[in-house]
Amino acid sequence: MIDTPEEARGTSPGIVVRTVLPHAETPPAPRPAVRRENRLRALDGLRLVAALMVAGYHYGGRDGEVVQAWGSSPKHQFPTLHHLFAYGCLGVQVFFVISGFVICMSGWGRPLRSFFASRASRLLPAYWAAILLVTAVFALPFVAYRTVSPSDTLVNLTMLQQPLGVDRVLGVCWTLWAEVRFYALFALCIVLPGANRQRVIMFCAGWTLAAAIAQGVNEPLLDMVLMPEYAPYFIGGVGLYLVHRDRRDAYAWGIVGVSWLIGQHYAVQRLWHAPNPQFFSDRSSLAIVLVVTFGYAAVAAIALGWLRWANWRWLTVAGALTYPFYLVHEHLGWVVIKAYHRTLHIPSYGTFLATVATMLLLAWLLNRFVENRLTPRLRTALSKPRPQRGS
Question: Which of 8, 34, 74, 165, by CA, is between 20 and 30 Å from 89?
Fold first, then answer.
């Protein structure tokens, strides 16, 4: 879903020989080197944690299609842990906070064409592969899950299936639709005019106020554009990037604090309910607030440099696997769970771990043979300036 920006390329030192000619103009002074951003490997690790939270929710924290895979409700498969797994859906909120941080970092000082090329090449190759893979697997005669129509599958390749009212191939793609809307807002308001501290602060403040108004007037168009329910997490992540740039920035901390206050409200409002046997989950409102707080606090710790020691190379690999794992784990996980648990009779906890491992292996294959090959080519094609036609 998100990635860290590529480091700016520096120039290697060398000997410069100048020949002074009569009446020659003095060459312009070289531009100062572009500020480098060190890769924040702890952020990669946090992304994987959020993805595993969501996987736990899909495999053991809810009913639905996964019941068919297990043969009974996850309540019976995980009599104790299903209460914990039910909080895994909040991994999405953690993802959105991370996304706000990373998109602000990667879009700062980048032209619009480069920003668009980076986002499109990051999202689309693995997404297209996941759409085709899930469609192909669900079309197999021994797989009991229904696939969408060929026409709807083609529309899914655009990432616009939700506003068009088309059946989704991937259940998790609703989060990608939220990400795309965030990218569009950030590109129009920040990247296009040029990122600076004042503009980013005004963007965060304006979006927060507009989202609150949209919630109050209950206008569907405003809800779709401004995303009141998800805006606090993206805005909080953007504020945390400002903290990363200057930890003493009072405005940045104010953005983070207001976003957290509103974000925990939406999370509790959506996910908490009074204890009721009709509901699968029995979440505590306090626990929901704590999980949301964990997301903000973890990104804040990274922004402040407190987790700089977590600089292991394997975290970069973990970050690379997160997006393809997130795309395929739910639907293909149902197929794998049924094969391991009901065909091979592997116990529930063993099936859970084996399914996660299988989906990580599939994510590695997608990263190596799809993303590593197509992403650079797509980025280059989209970044290439259009040739000027002669007059």
Answer: 165
Per-residue pLDDT of the chain (391 residues; tens, 9 = 90+): 545 433 333 333 333 333 333 444 444 444 443 344 457 899 999 999 999 999 999 999 999 999 999 999 999 999 999 999 999 999 999 999 999 999 999 999 999 999 999 999 999 999 999 999 999 999 998 887 888 999 999 999 999 999 999 999 999 999 999 999 999 999 999 999 999 999 999 999 999 999 999 999 988 999 999 999 999 999 999 999 999 999 999 999 999 999 999 999 999 999 998 777 777 778 999 999 999 999 999 999 999 999 999 999 999 999 999 999 999 999 999 999 999 999 999 999 999 999 999 999 999 999 999 999 999 999 999 998 877 665 4
DSSP state of 217: H
Cα angle at 188 between 186 and 192, to 5 degrees? 105
